[in-house]
Design a protein that fits this description.
By secondary structure, this protein is an alpha+beta fold. The chain has one domain (3-119): Beta Polymerase, domain 2. Helices cover 31% and strands 29% of the residues. The strands form 2 sheets. Strands 3-4-5-2-1-6 form a 6-stranded mixed beta sheet. Strands 7-8 form a two-stranded antiparallel sheet. A hairpin with a 6-residue loop joins strand 3 and strand 4 (74-78). It is globular.
Length: 127
């Protein structure tokens, strides 16, 4: 699997669906069974479902495993080397998983609808 294009495409889809706080975390040098986390948040359960539906319909790969679709507070899409986490705001603040990996947060270039690239990443809540 070519990981970088998957990360960038997923981030763009999330951004297009108005997901917020998009953060990529590089875990390739950590002893866990994935290489990257992509974390974002939704305004409410309906918004979370819309983001996840767009990811599942648009990404060329199907997730190996999905969790949290019925509750929609923390939805996980496991693509093997990439695990995508879509939180509602309250759950994201409570679990705060990006703070566990703060030293692994990476910039992620996403080509917006306009002509210039935008970099996503940094600490949670930063542009």
């Amino acid at each position: 699997m070519n990981v970088q294009p998957l990360l960038e495409r997923a981030a763009k889809i999330i951004e297009e669906k108005k997901g917020e706080g998009i953060v990529a975390i590089d875990l390739s040098d950590v002893s866990i069974p994935t290489s990257y986390f992509l974390i974002a948040e939704a305004d409410n359960p309906v918004h979370a479902k819309a983001i996840v539906s767009a990811l599942r319909e648009t990404l060329p790969e199907r997730p190996y495993h999905t969790e949290g679709l019925s509750e929609r507070r923390w939805i996980v899409l496991d693509y093997g080397d990439v695990v995508i986490h879509i939180f509602d705001r309250e759950a994201r603040g409570f679990y705060d998983i990006e703070s566990l990996w703060a030293d692994h947060i990476m910039p992620l270039a996403v080509e917006p609808a306009g002509d210039h690239a935008e970099t996503l990443g940094g600490a949670a809540g930063e542009p």
